[in-house]
User: What shape does this take?
Amino acid sequence: MIVILKQGTVQNEIDRLSDFFGSMGLKVHLSEGEHATIMGLIGDTSLVDPDMIANLEQVEAVRRIQEPYKKANRKFTPEDTVVDCSGVPLGGGNFQIIAGPCSVESEEQITFVAQEVKKAGAGLLRGGAFKPRTSPYAFQGLHDEGIRLLLKAKAATGLPVVTEIMDIKHLDLFADVDVIQVGARNMQNFELLKELGHTDKPILLKRGLANTIQELLMSAEYIMSGGNERVILCERGIRTFETATRNTLDLSAIPVLHEKTHLPVVVDPSHATGIARMVKPMAFAAAAAGADGLMIEVHNDPRHALCDGPQSLTPEEFAEVARGVFALRETLNA
Amino acid sequence: MIVILKQGTVQNEIDRLSDFFGSMGLKVHLSEGEHATIMGLIGDTSLVDPDMIANLEQVEAVRRIQEPYKKANRKFTPEDTVVDCSGVPLGGGNFQIIAGPCSVESEEQITFVAQEVKKAGAGLLRGGAFKPRTSPYAFQGLHDEGIRLLLKAKAATGLPVVTEIMDIKHLDLFADVDVIQVGARNMQNFELLKELGHTDKPILLKRGLANTIQELLMSAEYIMSGGNERVILCERGIRTFETATRNTLDLSAIPVLHEKTHLPVVVDPSHATGIARMVKPMAFAAAAAGADGLMIEVHNDPRHALCDGPQSLTPEEFAEVARGVFALRETLNA
Amino acid sequence: MIVILKQGTVQNEIDRLSDFFGSMGLKVHLSEGEHATIMGLIGDTSLVDPDMIANLEQVEAVRRIQEPYKKANRKFTPEDTVVDCSGVPLGGGNFQIIAGPCSVESEEQITFVAQEVKKAGAGLLRGGAFKPRTSPYAFQGLHDEGIRLLLKAKAATGLPVVTEIMDIKHLDLFADVDVIQVGARNMQNFELLKELGHTDKPILLKRGLANTIQELLMSAEYIMSGGNERVILCERGIRTFETATRNTLDLSAIPVLHEKTHLPVVVDPSHATGIARMVKPMAFAAAAAGADGLMIEVHNDPRHALCDGPQSLTPEEFAEVARGVFALRETLNA
Amino acid sequence: MIVILKQGTVQNEIDRLSDFFGSMGLKVHLSEGEHATIMGLIGDTSLVDPDMIANLEQVEAVRRIQEPYKKANRKFTPEDTVVDCSGVPLGGGNFQIIAGPCSVESEEQITFVAQEVKKAGAGLLRGGAFKPRTSPYAFQGLHDEGIRLLLKAKAATGLPVVTEIMDIKHLDLFADVDVIQVGARNMQNFELLKELGHTDKPILLKRGLANTIQELLMSAEYIMSGGNERVILCERGIRTFETATRNTLDLSAIPVLHEKTHLPVVVDPSHATGIARMVKPMAFAAAAAGADGLMIEVHNDPRHALCDGPQSLTPEEFAEVARGVFALRETLNA
Assistant: This one.
């Protein structure tokens, strides 16, 4: 951490600051110049609150060098984390496609889709029971009934299931769910993250629409600091000025995250683009960029889906995407 | 609502669609052309889910004309809403400054600040007990103790208090709080919004960093559709590429909101800019643009605040800002 | 084009408007409802200025349905355009890598790099002679001497060359250049675009940092409407709030552009990310998403490059990227 | 400037780097720690290219402390610059409103508007002769004829005139123009900026839609480093995800710019919002935030303006805005 002091800070104030930082277990190296005096703080600064230091009377500015996250940081955990999703490994070379409908609608629907995506090579089944919707008047999901149907599809196919939680008070309903998803709008719902840190289930954490990669890692750190280190990160598009796609899929986040963290990274091209015919090229691109997995919406009848139909693939379209992704990965790993 | 059909849609499909829309209580007017056939849906479309229509087999695109919110819509409630905050009116010409520290730290601190801001003309006291922080390692607020101290400051000064809720499970602690704040990161925590719709307290709803003005109104609609129509909207900066200020304060949101909704609009220049010396010019600007109120951070000792010190004013600085704002409003209303 | 009239527009005003649109060669279909009266304008509206219509006294809003570009529009030119770059075809299944240093520095440097990238499979050589730099104090390129050296490297290798123009007054210097590049900062330098519309050279048009896909196509239309239809589009990252990469590479632009236009699309992962070790994954991703080509910075000695060294690959690194890209394309085309 | 070295950099490499920086006239102070070695470079680094340093073999990262602009920097020129616009002073307490139509259309139009805005208190007349338009099919301005008519309006009223240049080849036509405007799309047309640095006319430089405040200052530096120090900066909205207004007016830029530079800052609420009825509140806000001037579109007949009618005020509306702005400034200066 670099602390830049105000011009005119006098020697005994500098000494007092040095003592203060020393008392935090940090070594201090001083650079004095005409236009600025600079203190380099050396040691473990990941637990230091830069706001607090910026408030000190003589401080003009603070710049972090070390990252503010520790458990998610690849520097301290160099090996890729492999998250065990009820027997299906994800990360560290274990690539998985998570597929299924935006919303669970009926037992027939979810079981049929589950069978189809399994045949095509999906490793996990997704399906929404609690749906965050911008409008209070839009379909909000089947709730506990949705989870019940999802678990029936799991029983029928053996696929572990991923579904979204919107409030910790529903946690009991997730007892047999394999992976709990935190949606983009809740990425900084810190109370929810803290509680999920006390569970023993893998958490699929989606990046918020306006959140930086570093903030995504800080939210993972919230979960991990509670004791649950099984976090899967998910890039699903950020909000920019471009309106041709629903959001802008930030695929550079894949190599950036692989550098900064040991956690697995999956990509959701369905929500990012909002357009079914963009899913195939963006799924290929995500796999080519090194994603550890994909999350893809598949619906038996996209035209009549209760939500997000325009971005859902049919089972046949999904099978074609999966085939291409597997072939592409084989080439890249050859 | 305008529905654009695909090229090549045949007559009996058009007839079936017309019947379908008719069954929803909508009148249909048809425009057929060489490159596109267009259906204008006339009637109350605020409850129609455009996603559902976009999914219909013959539909190429859907464009809303009517806004998707109803209770928050000025078209249906032309008069300004005045929110009664335990006797202090806000909105419809009643301008209020909400002032106080980012975090409640001690009884002396919050009571002292409350007395000072009251003297300077503030109508409500703010103070954080539950603090959303990006890092799990940063100070998270005094929680129930914070609310207890805030209520002591209320007792000492008579100022109604505003404080943030982060999880509905804490609602009981807010029994004597006058206005409940929903922070920017929870603007689309729909489960929280729904529950607050069943309370009888004014809700101060902050705009999310990446949320459009329309999404802010949809979140207000979530609260209002539950029965609680006492919503105060708050612009506090949006996330853009500019890094000179923490966020970009979108003051155009004030006149836009005044057109679209009858709800009061307050502005928080402290969080938007993150820089104490920018608060005065931006507070003046917000008042000049027609805000119904301001929310300003004031701390007895900003250099040693436990959070957000760099953006807090001293009581003296606040008094100067308040004087200027009141003078400016008097001129504009003359 | 859809024209929404103000509430209360009376019949003889509607008639006058209908006549006015009729006089522009457009058919008008009318939908009258309680909350809005809507006119659908049918016919060729690509030359109609929506601003002008929005100004008409009775008009509340105008929504385009047809795109405002014609020559760049795939609807009117369904077949992919193949741009002939002095014998090297680009587009319509002809994939090309354009490689070379950010700046031409010396004859040895540019010739050496040209030979290396040719060996690795590059089809065109890039090298900057005129360099747009944010600071007036930064290296601005070798200008005419840079172009002279670039042409020497062309003579030595047979690779056609691509280099950027910053002002039309330099056009004479580009007489033997094969492809003229318009940089991101000049994407809406309309005077430059108009002049390039009168040349007979292929133009590589880079998307501006804050420009939508539609604006990119409108800038292509500027060139094409002048008579020069050999335009190559280039996605090179847009400006967002994320700072982990220099810009955010918008790979969804590839499938979107392929739908909207017949012009070829290349991607520049070097400038987009600004980080050499991100070039490989993003080059793979761009190829997988269906790009018609790549533009990659290669430098003999990136550590001592006079500009943009941190994002340049060594010839060896480039050869590895090229091998992977070719293998991946073979798999996808199988 | 702070230079962070890679872990494992050995002593004699550190010594060589120190010598290298010493040869650039900089003093070096070293901080060595377990996780990082840091060099503080002290002295005048405004002419040092951080890219070049980042390229050095042992360097991990470079952080600027000093700003990269010198002539525009308030640190070196503490007093406000007052730009003399043919006798009308702007800046340093001299507030001016620049008003007039988007496009010059006819002698009657421009002279009438000039007389009206002068009566209402405008100090300068604006009017476009060269118009940058997204579409090649939209009205592009009257060019030399437009400038001729503008000068007639100047002769009739005595108001100095401001008009936009789009290509330096037109410079001769601007011989009698008082202030030359550089539009947002040309803010980084560096060749144009360099040439304007050799003229002796005030330059009104508009901020680009995706440009940071620092980039705006760097573009001013381009002009100033050529010898022309009479630069007026103009905030006119930046591009964000919000679509309720055409752009997002960044009023925080006013106090930020006043801190960083001595150059005057004007605000254009007409282009920023694109909506006439937003001009008044945003003009008030800009004045309240400390702008040195405003730039406002006024048209005799906005409904039939050839461009940007929806954002133009009538002369009566403008007079009301001007009265309010002057009253508000009087209050703030009292």
Observations:
- Chain C touches chain B through 23 residues (CB under 8 Å).
